[in-house]
Amino acid sequence: MTIDFASDPSTSDLAPAGHWLSSRSAPLSLSDLPSIDPARLALHNALHVARRPLAFDWYGRAASLHLLPDTADIPEACKIAIRVGKTSVVLSGSARAFDRLGQHPDRRRTLDEVDPELAAMWLEVVWLEWLEPLEATLGADIRLAPSPPVLSEPTMRVSVVFQLGDESHPLALDLPLSAAEMLLPLFDRAFVAEPAPANAVVATLRVETGEQTLTLGEWRSLRPGDMVMLEAAAADEARLNLADRFGCRIRFHETGLRLSEPLQRMTPRPVPSAPREARAIETPDVTATHEDEDTVDNETSTAPPEPGVDKTTLADRDRNDSSLKNETAIGSNVNGADMNGADINGAGVNDLPVRLTCELGRLEMSLGELRQLGEGSVLPLQRRPDQAVDLVVNGRTMGRGRLVAIGDAIGVQIERLALGEGRAGDD
What we know:
Chemotaxis protein chec
């Protein structure tokens, strides 16, 4: 397949007439890309972060300085050197921009009507009330000169627009790297950083009804019908979780989920290295209570228990699994790996902690919408808590269950599992 750029009017400027290019792209090399010195990358980004404009009074008129992108077209009809100690920076702009910068009630002529040396001296006098505080802060004299020097060291450009009433005058400041580093703290104070709100960025809210930390061995031993006690679970309350960074309590409402508080920063939850000790409970939290199977099924699920459910407790099942492994030849394996070995497929992997979370669903909202949430806000609820919950293990959906009351506490009864595939929901 070939493409004739000359035959397409929309691409006629990309290749000369009669020129044919293969649709196969040529390899991209570093020399084809714009080059940025790694040593100046951090400084460049610090200078060009989004910032608020600097507003000030200019002899009775409202004025401000706004940052412009690097690619802004700046007229360079006039240039002036600003010497800060032994370092020089160069200010460029149009003749009209410099004329406005030299505006003063006592001035009788425009700057282009006087000698360049006199114009530089005049600007230094007009700017004196700003230059003197800078000299005190930097501990260096600041002088203006009409002839900008040729800067030998690499420079960085900061572009601004001088706004005076309804007039706009673009300016460029070329700084040696040493001067940029020296002036960056002053720059931060004058132009306060104001990152873009990014209101259109979409985030996912997880509706969580409870959680528990298990060992991998405990999780692998679960079967449909088993029950797991949940931590931090309540019958009439759940929690919104935003990327494990922000969260809030919510209550079930007839029209959806009502926030009990605004979204707040969450304390990071460390994964315990020994789940049973971390829970500090004498009796195991993971139970397979089958003594009254019919009662549990009637109270928690209208679906009958799946056939072939093991009626033993998890402790018995673990012991049986261990006995079976001891009786099996060393060459036996799971997924082709030796379970008696010392690698990741060995029996010791059963002690790894896993975090089991029960989710009612997930909501996608933009950051702009999230910022508007507060106490009393109502969010849609796709699934009632008495219907079903997703079993999410270490962030991945691996089963489906139903909330049950276990005494005065809340637990979840396993309905479906996908230990290998990693998905056991409606889809």
